[in-house]
Amino acid sequence: MNKSVLVISGSPRKNGDGAKIVDDIEEMIADLSDIAVERLMIRDYNLEFCTGCLACKKNIGNGCVLQDDLNDILAKSRYAIRTTKVKKKLIVL
Fold first, then answer.
1. Do 7 and 22 touch, CB atoms closer than 8 A?
2. Is 87 inside a domain boundary?
3. For the chain, which terminal residue's Cβ has fewer other Cβ atoms within 10 angstroms, N or C?
4. Phi, psi (5° rounding) for residue 3?
C-alpha cells in the first residue's frame, strides 16, 4: 500500500489564493518524499446539510444516510490515514 496524503480545500475559488497554497503544499510533499498527493476540492462535491438524525452514530461503519458525496470524502480520508503512520493528523490553513 503506497503512502498518500489527502489535501482538502474548502475554497470556493478554483484559482484563488487558497489554491496557490494547496499547490505549494503538494509541491513540497512531492519534493520531499515519494508520497502520493490527492487534492480534494469541497466545491466539486455534492454535500447536503446534516439533519441531525444520528444514523451515522447508530450504524457505525455505514456512514451518512444522506445520498450525497460525504461517504466518498470519508473513504478517501480513511485511506490516507491508513497508508501513513500519522494518526488523524489535520493541518488547517
1. yes
2. no
3. N
4. -70, 145
Q: Range of 47's domain? A: 4-82
Quote the Cα angle for 76-78-84, to 5°: 105
Helix (H) or strand (E) holding 75: helix 70-82
Q: Work out the angle at residue 83's Cα, subtended by the Cα atoms of residues 40 and 48, and round it to the nearest 5 degrees.
A: 35
Give the dihedral sign, CA 24/28/34/37: negative
CB-CB contact of 51 with 66 (8 Å): yes
Predicted confidence (pLDDT) per residue in 51-74, tens digit? 998 887 887 667 788 889 988 888
Residue with the bigger pLDDT between 64 and 20: it is 20
At 22, list the grid cell: 494547496
Query: Is 93 a member of any domain?
Result: no
**Distance of alpha carbon 67 from the chain centroid:** 18
Residue 90 lies in a domain: no
Tally of structural domains, the chain: 1
